[in-house]
Amino acid sequence: GERVKVVHAMESTEMEAFYSAQGLVGEDEAAAMWDAMRNPLPTSFRLMRCGRFHDEVKRRLSDEFAPMFDDAGHGALRQIKWFPGGNAWTTAVPRTELRKNETLRQFHQFLITHHDIGSINRQETVSMIPVLLLDFGPGMSVADLCAAPGSKTAQLLDDIAARRENPSGIVVANDADKKRAWMLNHQMKRFACTNLIVTYHEAQKFPRFHKFDRILCDVPCTGDGTLRKSPGLWALWSHRDAVGLHRLQVQIAIRGFQLLKPGGRMVYSTCSMNPIENEAVVHALLARFSPSIRIVDVSAALPGLKRRPGLTTWKVPDSAHDNVGHWLKSFDDVPLRRRKRVVETLFPPQDAQFGAPLARCVRIVPHDQDTGAFFVAVLEKTDDDMDDQEDAELAVAEAEPAAEESTAGEFAAEEPAAGEFAAAEPASGAEQEPSTGAVASDPTAVAEPTEEEVKQGDEPIVTVLSHSPDVIDTISRFYGVDPAYLNRHLVTRSPADGKIRKTYIISQDLEAFVFNPEVSVVGAGVRAFEWNTAEKTQTFRMCSDSLDILLPRFTARVFDVSMEDFCAMLGNSVPIESLKSEELKQGLNALETGTVGVVPAGDRSSAIVIWKGSKTISPYITRQAITELRLMYNS
């Protein structure tokens, strides 16, 4: 049928009255703030430093696409000046226009391609702030408690992968919903990190068996800071929503702080403007954990970022009334019958001196730097809280949806769940064996998990050694990998029929999580070897995801090749006899059918997996990666 365009009325007298009463900005700039909220959100994205095409992507943005924007009169494509290393970019052209604009079609396709192969990650500008303020360093463990859809998790993984000389650390990405966690796991495959584990637990009940160096609490929220991206929220906004979510937000924040090591840092953030979801939650933490907690002053961090201080007082709406303008002055005003839902932590500190530290929180408003609205608080545990309570209570009732207080059907997601740059056609998903030397279908494409995959997620993760030591022997002999390394790092899902089909490489740091029965694991590590089902090639094929990790450990089925032969290998069903190097031809012909690693001119960062058939070879990487390699090497 014909597509119907939905036009949203971008007005809400209730919302504007509510935030006017809160004093979010001065009366002289309120109009500018709401005008900014009615304009579409600029397009922004982050370059993944771990991506193989990072330098080439950065060069093309500067030399090719930035001038294209200037010439076309569409506004600048520029680096975000406060983001370190020039690795984040933005343009005033919204995503919807990028798709339609003929002049910018090449740029839009460039974004799609490099998003799919993991060189670029689409991320709203303000969403990049929490991880930067987390100060996540080498060897640290971090839990992203409300991780889906994963933009901040990807940023954490990039921090690890970019430290090539010391890529140590642990990233636990958690979500309360199993299917969302599966989608998160699929999205993160693009970044191939052995230090990642994806779990599903209610964040407020995350198991307390480990103390983390860093905690990220980007909690479910009403999301009214995303009006520029989600204009439908204008009509849905209600003063009751934040009251209904506050208890859950406090519980998640408490559990996060309980999971933190002494001296550790936690970032609490929302894409809401509402102080009930922001400063009120932080104040609840201060009251609960004092004197073992402090708000870190980050006013000097990220030079060039315009920010406002946190509010030190606010008004609590009376949710018994339909309209804004009825306020509860203190908890004493709340009738006893409503105190289970309208809790004491909603209210501001009665004494101004207790509210003063809240000014160290960070507020981002849309008209300062043409962004969405956002809230961030950086908290440090100064001492062990000595808190052995299993449940995050703080006199906060169990977080149950309350119809009288919350009208929102779903919590706001600050980033889209999938398909950030909306490729025209979905990719196929699984890595497939090119039986006649055809180019392999995209092995890293992200597809929605099937019911079968979600069921497989219930199978426990075990070491391959403990399940099938013969598989270790097979892989070790075929690829010349030290079996001791595989014994330590190769894991699999324990299959119901006993036959291993997929294996994964994990860092040893993950063992405490992966094999812990308290932890509900969706995925961990990076795909390494998969069973090849073709009749004539009964062996395990290597996955391109883990090539960077495994290549230095291979002593067989790896070739250093000339750039001329490498470029020839990027073709489809290339006859082995057509290659220039006689030594290479002899070496390939001597091998059994299966996957092979090739390194062009000694450059391991550009190495790829190829499929070696009986007489032909084909690249065993994504079609997008093939295209980019051809562009890089003018082949």
Can you offer a commentary on this structure?
- With 635 residues, the protein is an alpha+beta fold.
- Strands 5, 6, 7, 8, 9, 10, 11, 14, 15 and 19 form a 10-stranded mixed sheet that branches.
- It is globular, with a radius of gyration of 26 Å.
Which secondary-structure class do the elements indicate? alpha+beta
Number of strands: 26
Portion in helices: 25-40%
Oligomer: single chain
Strand content: 15-25%
Q: What value does the average pLDDT take?
A: 87
Gap between N and C termini, in Å?
Answer: 43 Å
Number of helices: 22
Largest sheet: 10 strands, mixed
Radius of gyration: 26 Å
Which descriptor suits the 3D outline? Answer: globular
The poorly predicted ranges are 1-5, 392-411, 413-446
Give the gist of this structure.
With 635 residues, the chain is α+β, with helices and mostly antiparallel strands. Helix content is 30%, strand content 18%. Strands 5, 6, 7, 8, 9, 10, 11, 14, 15 and 19 form a ten-stranded mixed β-sheet that branches. The chain has a five-stranded antiparallel β-sheet with strand order 16-17-18-20-21.
SSE arrangement:
Layout: H1 13-22, H2 27-37, E1 43-47, H3 54-72, E2 77-79, E3 88-91, H4 95-100, H5 105-116, E4 120-122, H6 129-134, E5 141-144, H7 151-161, E6 170-175, H8 178-188, E7 196-200, E8 212-218, H9 233-236, H10 239-258, E9 260-270, H11 279-289, E10 293-295, E11 308-309, E12 316-317, E13 327-328, H12 352-355, E14 362-364, H13 366-369, E15 374-381, H14 451-456, E16 461-463, H15 464-467, H16 469-479, H17 483-489, E17 490-493, E18 502-505, H18 511-514, E19 521-524, E20 526-531, E21 540-542, H19 547-550, E22 558-561, H20 563-569, E23 574-575, H21 582-589, E24 594-600, E25 608-612, E26 616-619, H22 623-632
Parallel strand pairs: 5-6, 5-8, 6-7, 8-9, 22-24
Antiparallel strand pairs: 1-3, 1-4, 2-3, 7-19, 9-15, 10-15, 11-14, 12-13, 14-15, 16-17, 17-18, 18-20, 20-21, 23-26, 24-25, 25-26
